[in-house]
Design goal:
By secondary structure, the chain is of the alpha+beta class. It has four domains: 134 residues, Response regulator (Rossmann fold); 114 residues, Beta-Lactamase (2-Layer Sandwich), CATH 3.30.450.20; 108 residues, 2-Layer Sandwich (Beta-Lactamase), CATH 3.30.450.20; 149 residues, Heat Shock Protein 90 (2-Layer Sandwich), CATH 3.30.565.10. It contains 23 helices and 31 strands. The strands form six sheets. Strands 6, 7, 8, 9, 10, 11 and 12 form a seven-stranded antiparallel sheet that branches.
């Protein structure tokens, strides 16, 4: 059994604080944990760099870029690995969506490490079990698919539980359609002579609990009505206690053998009158029969070929096999049907359809061959002509999408499909031969004619739906309605034909109006949510502030003020969002002055705040501003705690500038300065660690610049 300490987990979480917490918990639980903040990095680690992770903990919401479900799908398309989704969502549709991707687990965030650890361990067990089951199943599937006979398995009630590919072909029932049906519904057999139903072998096995074989002259009637001569046997499926749990039915198609025997009997007095060449040979391929049709097709007289080897008389060219391979195939399978090219006596070539059958004597030993040949040269020429005449219709149909209307170069309708009849209210026979203008409102006719004429000159074969712009159709009742159209052209025998494909967008227009109304309602609901969240957070802020003021322990007091400051940064953001006219964004000119004054006011010391913010209005999304607000809170809190111990006129300075697409935030104070030993890469403090992680999350760069005076500089692409 693999130890937990040997398990390597990839944690995909874009929220830095949560990632730090989850990573710490998992490592304390004995796992090796690697954290990435986006789906693209996870794909690179697992697939491109092929890191040997044992399991992936996948957050669903990953900010911009791929979300968790998309990332998981991409990874699983390249590599088998257990994925457990870790999300704050509990909606049924979201959980169901993850189940369609992988079934190794879905853990709601903040459920506790015990739940998370149990889910991970269960995922490992499921993965190991699935791999073992998969291996066994693949082995059994290979064996079952390799069997040349049809195989149907049933339960003890005679209901089908398995159909192999050969049985699917013979019965006409696919595995999925046949499972659950009774054997008599899938395996319908009758006596070929009486045409009466024959008792099913499965029913007999279930009654007698013994192996049974099918009677002679049994015909299987397939789902589509096709009939096959078959032989079969049924055997009970028993468990370890000897109890019959079902039946396995094995059968094969002997139609070819049966047909050969029947054909020989019927042709005894007819062979010289048939149009096909019929040639008989012994088992060494020496000719012993040559009918009149064979003389006519191959120009050899019967007396010229009797006793000679057929392979030397008739030179046959099979497309995929040699002559010897065909003989071996017939010896093994009993018959061969195919096409070939054969040379006649005068050297001319014939396209031949061949039916070569192995003959057995009364002792069921091979005694010779029957060679039936039909000259299909003329038929192939006729088929070629038919295919050419059908090319016009085939190409038009292949371009079809919705309503299809084809016109000739004079713009008269030559094809009007059922969807067009329904859309315009005309029967096909009413409109064929009429000008296309009859289906277009008068105000659009000139414009539409120009579109078609111009399109015909371009030589382009097709323009996509909507390429003709916004147009309208005209129904038989003179009602106008909006449509989208695509157009294509083909050339058949030198004639240019146009096919216009139309889509009625009336319903879509109504739907778009409803969508706009729903979006407006959504905006109102979102603002109400922002308002309520802000009120709840304000309550938390008040409680933390009151608790801080009541503390005599300065360390505890500072911790509570820090927590209150972080919440305050979020309160300010929610307040700005609530009053914002834009969608989920706030300007930095509106946000930063408020957050600075609000955070400074939490602490008892009076500090001046000097802000220098560029005049150009810049809108940032709420998620980015939330991270920036917490970073600024940590910087101000550090100043309030450590910088102004002996400073008479404390001051905080924030300078925000922008160069091209880089937004720069420069923070400093007039306090005692930042020790040389402190950096964002080397700090024991949680606050500076948090600043570093949040900066990485928003893809920014932060540093301490001690030139002239100590200051913190954060650069961010906007």
């Amino acid at each position: 059994m693999t130890l937990v300490a040997e398990k390597s987990i990839l944690l995909v979480e874009d929220e830095a604080i949560l990632a730090l917490y989850e990573k710490n918990q998992l490592e304390q639980g004995g796992y090796k944990v690697t954290h990435v903040s986006c789906g693209e990095n996870a794909i690179q680690l697992v697939i491109e760099e092929e890191n040997p992770f044992d399991l992936i903990l996948m957050d669903i919401d990953l900010g911009k870029g791929l979300d968790g479900t998309e990332t998981a799908t991409h990874i699983l398309n390249h590599k088998e690995i257990p994925i457990v989704f870790l999300s704050s969502h509990t909606e049924r549709e979201i959980v169901k969506k993850t189940e369609s991707i992988t079934s190794y687990g879905y853990v709601v965030k903040n459920s506790g490490f015990t739940v998370l650890d149990a889910s991970i361990k269960m995922a490992f067990k499921l993965f190991e079990a699935n791999e073992l089951t998969k291996s066994k199943k693949e082995h059994l599937e290979t064996v079952l698919h390799s069997i040349g006979d049809g195989v149907i398995a049933t339960d003890k009630d005679g209901k089908v539980i398995r159909i192999n590919p050969v049985a699917e072909k013979l019965t006409g029932w696919t595995h999925d359609d046949g499972v659950g049906l009774t054997i008599n519904e899938v395996f319908n057999i009758i006596n070929v002579k009486t045409r009466l139903k024959v008792e099913n072998p499965v029913d007999i096995v279930l009654k007698t609990n013994a192996v049974v074989a099918l009677a002679n002259h049994t015909v299987l009637i397939a789902k589509d009505g096709a009939e096959y001569q078959i032989s079969d046997s049924g055997s009970p499926i028993k468990d370890l206690n000897g109890e019959t749990k079902g039946v396995v039915l094995v059968f094969r198609d002997i139609t070819a053998e049966y047909n050969v025997q029947s054909q020989i009997a019927k042709q005894a007095n007819m062979l010289n009158n048939v149009l096909d060449a019929v040639i008989g040979t012994d088992f060494t391929q020496k000719i012993n029969y040559w009918n009149k049709a064979a003389e006519k097709i191959f120009f050899w007289k019967s007396e010229e070929v009797i006793g000679k080897n057929i392979l030397k008389v008739l030179k046959t060219n099979y497309s995929n096999f040699s002559e010897q391979e065909i003989i071996e195939k017939v010896n093994l399978e009993g018959s061969f049907i195919g096409e070939a090219i054969q040379e006649a006596k005068d050297g001319s070539l014939r396209n031949i359809e061949i039916n070569l059958v192995l003959l057995n004597d009364e002792f069921e030993l091979p005694s010779g061959y029957i060679f039936v040949a039909r000259d299909i040269s003329d038929r192939l020429k006729a088929l070629k002509q038919i295919k050419e005449s059908e090319a016009k219709l085939t190409q038009i149909i292949e371009s079809a999408m919705d309503a299809i209307i084809s016109i000739d170069k004079s713009k008269k309708i030559i094809l009007f499909n059922g969807a067009a009849e329904k859309m315009f209210g005309y029967e096909s026979n009413e409109i064929i031969g009429k000008p296309l203008d009859q289906l277009i409102p008068e105000s659009f006719r000139n414009q539409h004619d120009k579109h078609i004429d111009q399109f015909g000159k371009t030589g382009v074969s097709r323009r996509a739906m909507g390429a003709l712009g916004e147009i309208s159709g005209l129904r038989s009742n003179k009602e106008e309605f909006p449509i989208e159209a695509s157009i294509s052209q083909i050339s058949v025998n030198g004639e240019t034909l146009f096919t216009v494909i139309l889509r009625d967008v009336s319903v879509r227009t109504i739907s778009e109006s409803k969508i706009q109304k729903l979006l407006h309602e959504k905006e109102n609901i979102l603002k109400e949510i922002h308002h309520r969240v802000k009120n709840n957070m304000s309550s938390l802020f008040t409680l933390l502030t009151l608790q801080a003021k009541s503390q005599e322990n300065h360390s505890v007091q500072h911790i509570l003020y820090e927590a209150a400051g972080r919440i305050k940064s979020m309160i300010v953001l929610y307040d700005k969002l609530y009053h914002s006219e834009t969608d989920n964004s706030v300007s930095i000119q509106n946000y930063f002055p408020s957050i600075c004054s609000e955070i400074v006011s939490i602490f008892p010391k009076n500090v001046d705040v000097n802000l220098n913010i560029l005049e150009e209005p810049i809108e940032l999304n709420a998620k980015l501003l939330s991270s920036l607000g917490i970073i600024l809170n940590e910087l101000i809190t550090n100043s309030m705690k450590h910088a102004f111990i002996e400073i008479q006129n404390p001051e905080i300075r924030l300078n925000i500038s922008k160069h091209k697409n880089i937004l720069s935030l420069e923070y400093s104070d007039n306090g005692i300065g930042i020790p040389e030993t402190i950096s964002f890469q080397n700090t024991p403090g949680f606050g500076l660690q948090l600043i570093g992680m949040l900066t990485e999350q928003i893809e920014g760069k932060i540093r301490i610049d001690r030139t002239n005076y100590p200051k913190v500089i954060l650069d961010l692409k906007v």
